[in-house]
Amino acid sequence: MDLKELKALLRLMEGNDVEELEVEEGGRRIRIRRRSAQALIPQAAMLPVPQATVQAAGAPAQDTAGLIPVESPMVGTFYRAPAPGAEPYVKEGDIVQKGTTVCIIEAMKLMNEIEAEMKGRVARILVENGQPVEFGQTLFLLEPA
Q: Which architecture does CATH list for 52-144?
């Protein structure tokens, strides 16, 4: 891949609001990632927060005490159901087993099934259907069973 092709890829990203692009050609892989507004946040602000202090905006800490987060393993679009108009994988109050599919995250036109990592009851669903999600964002809160 030459400089002219790289410049064309950069223009493509700018003109189409693409955050990340990865191209593999001839055994070489190139990944171009746009610096987002979040990347400008000082690193100290992005340190992990101990789980006991994580809470939804405006929710008292005791509301999440003892609940286990199901986090997004990737950046993408969150879907509660396998297809438009289909029943959601889970609803609040449902009991899930380890390995139960709880949602789909679409990333680069690939549908990735996200599974529960433990048995529990779905206490809260924190993301709306079709909403973009970030790596590590809490999608659900499970009450251990």
A: Beta Barrel (2.40)
